[in-house]
Design goal:
single chain; alpha/beta; 7 helices
C-alpha cells in the first residue's frame, strides 16, 4: 500500500502543475513494473480542449504502447475517472486504477469493477483539498465542466 501513496504523490504533483498553469488540478500517472512511464494533468482550459482530462493526457503522453503493456499498468489519478476516462481505461485494458478521492466527483466506479478493473480509493485529504479549494475559487468554471460530464 505504501507504494500507492508514493505514486499518488506524483499524480498530485501533476495536479499542482495543472493548477499553476491556471487549469483544473487533476493529475494522473501511468505505472508499469513500479516505474512511471507517463504523466499527465487536466489541460481543458490551457489547451481549450474538450477531452484532455488528466487521465486522457497521461495516456496520450505514454505514446503508442503495445496492448500487452497496458495490461501490466496501474493508472493513478487524483480524482475518480469520469465516463470518458473510464472508457479509455476499459478500451486499453488497464487492470488497476488507484484514485486519490471520489467525494468531489464519483465516476462510474461500479461499471469499471463490473468489467474487471481493480479500484483502490486512497481517499486522501490532500486531493479533496486541492479540488475543494479550486471549486470554491472557480465555481463557474467547475460548474460548466461538471455540466458536460453529468
Amino acid at each position: 500500500m505504501e507504494k500507492h501513496y508514493m505514486f499518488m504523490k506524483k499524480a498530485i504533483e501533476e495536479a499542482k502543475k495543472g493548477l499553476k498553469e491556471q487549469g483544473i488540478p487533476i493529475g494522473a500517472i501511468l505505472v508499469k513494473n513500479d516505474e512511471i512511464i507517463a504523466r499527465g494533468h487536466n489541460k481543458l482550459l490551457q489547451k481549450n480542449s474538450v477531452i484532455l482530462h488528466g487521465e486522457m493526457d497521461c495516456i496520450e503522453n505514454a505514446g503508442r504502447l503495445k496492448g500487452v503493456d497496458y495490461k501490466e499498468c496501474t493508472l493513478y489519478t487524483t480524482l475518480s475517472p469520469c465516463d470518458m476516462c473510464s472508457g479509455l481505461i476499459l478500451l486499453y485494458n488497464i487492470p488497476k486504477v488507484v484514485i486519490g478521492e471520489n467525494k468531489t466527483l464519483k465516476g462510474p466506479e461500479d461499471y469499471l469493477r463490473e468489467n474487471g478493473v481493480e479500484l483502490i480509493n486512497l481517499d486522501l485529504e490532500e486531493c479533496k483539498t486541492l479540488m475543494n479549494d479550486y471549486i470554491s475559487e472557480n465555481s463557474e468554471i467547475w460548474d460548466l465542466e461538471l455540466e458536460k460530464i453529468k
